[in-house]
Amino acid sequence: MILYPSVDKLLKKDNSRYSLVMLASKRAHELDDGASELLPKYNSVKNVGKALEEIEAGKVILDGE
Fold it and tell me: Which family is it part of (predicted)?
């Protein structure tokens, strides 16, 4: 279950849950492979949570936005 950031806040960034899942998955894989973190502090320990926090902060966006 995702507690932070909330799904409602994430859906304000993109209406499609599918797009959010794909973006978070891609970013989490990048973090797994050693990509640098984009935020100074995270609430989540896991890379999927970190990816969602980056999306919510507007640091990671879908191509074409």
Answer: Belongs to the RNA polymerase subunit omega family.
39 CB-near residues (< 8 Å, 6+ apart): 50, 53, 54, 57, 59
The residue with tokens 């990671």 is: 60
CA pair distance 12, 46, nearest whole angstrom: 23
Which residue reads 């935020």 in tokens? 39
In the predicted model, what is the mean pLDDT of residues 2-17?
78
- At residue 5, the 3 state secondary structure works out as coil
Q: Is 48 exposed, middle or buried (0-12, 13-18, 19+ CB in 10 A)?
A: middle
Please tell me whether the overall predicted TM-score, pTM, comes out greater than 0.90 for this model.
Answer: no
